[in-house]
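ENTRY TYPE: paired fold submission
RECORD: A
CONTENT: sequence, then structure tokens
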Amino acid sequence: MSTTLGNRMLLVEERIKQACERSGRSREDVQIIAVTKYVSLDTTRDALAHGLRHLGENRWQDAQAKWEAISGNEDQSAVDHQPIWHFIGSLQTNKVKDVIGKFTYMHSLDRLSLADAIDKRASQLGIIVPCFIQVNVSGEDSKHGIEPDKLFAFVAQLGQFQSLKPIGLMTMAPYESEPEETRTVFRALRELRDELQLRCPQAQSITQLSMGMSNDFEVAIEEGATWIRLGTILVGKEEE
């Protein structure tokens, strides 16, 4: 597995660099989140050993065993390879207590009831949680996220929460056999971010863009992604 992962990392890195060069961006502007939801604890440890520090999971039920083994002090061999956890899936308010305090970044903030629950839990723990607001740019019914035309009012309302800090926008593009067809979705999210910065005083901290996955990350980078979420193409996918 180690050699395979190392080779994948080299190939992905080269593609990231080329996408940055094509769009006149610095490689340092793009961060990788290794999405480990489809791989085992051993593979997740291997990713950490290879220097992949940002790990993404989308369900606490699936992530719990990995988190407890790696970050819950059950596995002392992992002390030198502690990850930064990103929660990238839709989150129910009754699961907030399980996730906040364990995951540093939240990528799926899409409603005030969730913001309120995150804020209350973070306040209890004495922390501030950086969050990405999930926007349903494509308009697909199967996608979570706030509608673009409701984003500005939503951001304004987030000012009431002291233990939650919106730092960016997140979206998921439809899966396309031709990645180029996702460009309009990623461009629209970047334009929303830019318009927010101009129109909303509360949006000055909203600078980041979490967009792009294994199938379309190069297009996302060309359109301004600062965080890309890579699973299959990077760490693989293991059958249950």
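RECORD: B
CONTENT: sequence, then structure tokens
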Amino acid sequence: MSDTTLVPTPASGSAPPAPIVLSAHDVAVIHRVNSGRLFTPAHLHALAGADIQVRRGEVLGIVGESGCGKSTLARVLVGLQKPTTGSVRFHDRDLWALPARRRASEFGSAIGMVFQDASTALNRRLSVRRVLRDPLDVHGRGTKAQREARVAEVMDLVGLPPSAADVLPGQLSGGQRQRVAIARALVLEPEVIVADEPTSALDVSVRAQILNLLRDLKDRLGLGLVFISHDIQTVRYLADRIAVMYLGHVVEEGPAEHVAGAPRHPYTVALFSATPSLLTDTRRVPLTGPLPSAVDPPSGCPFRTRCWKASDTCARSLPEPREDRTGHLFRCHHPM
């Protein structure tokens, strides 16, 4: 198979679900911001009651418009952002109940992160070898020889030639820099990788190579992978499960084939129609009205101000989550 060919993820079988490695339950992140009025602070609701589960060996795709809370959720999942309320659990342990030193040593090495722009995420003054060896040095992994061997191993895993070890990140192409970023996320042998828009800055052909690399690594290493993107069609073909976010809420989540093939939330329908697939004939569903502010979110359902199915009920109360027998969950008073 060519590196530049993106092939669909096979449909889920009947095997029992893999164990949950990482989860966020009822997580809210609220930032205090300047309202422009003296003594009257405002609050930005970056996340509002988000629930996410990441299973071993599974790709969870998270999609939504810019500003919906995807990157905030990524920071929560990797321990860079403490939630205002709610909990984050790694296996059966509450992440933020752990002492800071244990949280850094145990959780910090078990979860890797790939950022959107490798050119700013990698230290430009360090060689690729040093960039990859630094996490091993910080966590005191093995002897010097073992660390060097691990650097060579992860470079080979992500398809980087040995000659790249002694060059600076700025001397590499965009795709090669992103491979270095993926190698750095893998070097401590994590159980979960969180990739926040890892292909948005790349050319189309290079993007497909990186997507195929991530899926191959997930299969070979048994990783849990959280793939965050605004491109719902890319997520559709990469993910086993899809979570759709709107204004800090997870409004729909379930098996990729069900969320893509029979979306229940109107916002998910509109997202798919905005980026039509060559494989399906999708009618365009335009959204009217401005995107609400996270500082002053609407009452009830957060999507009601742009939804063609909204009613008085939608303004009065936030829809309770409903789940069908396939594990397809959605929050909507008037589902599709």
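NOTES ON RECORD B: Confidence is low (pLDDT under 50) at residues 1-13. Residues 179 and 204 are 15 Å apart (CA to CA).
STATUS: closed
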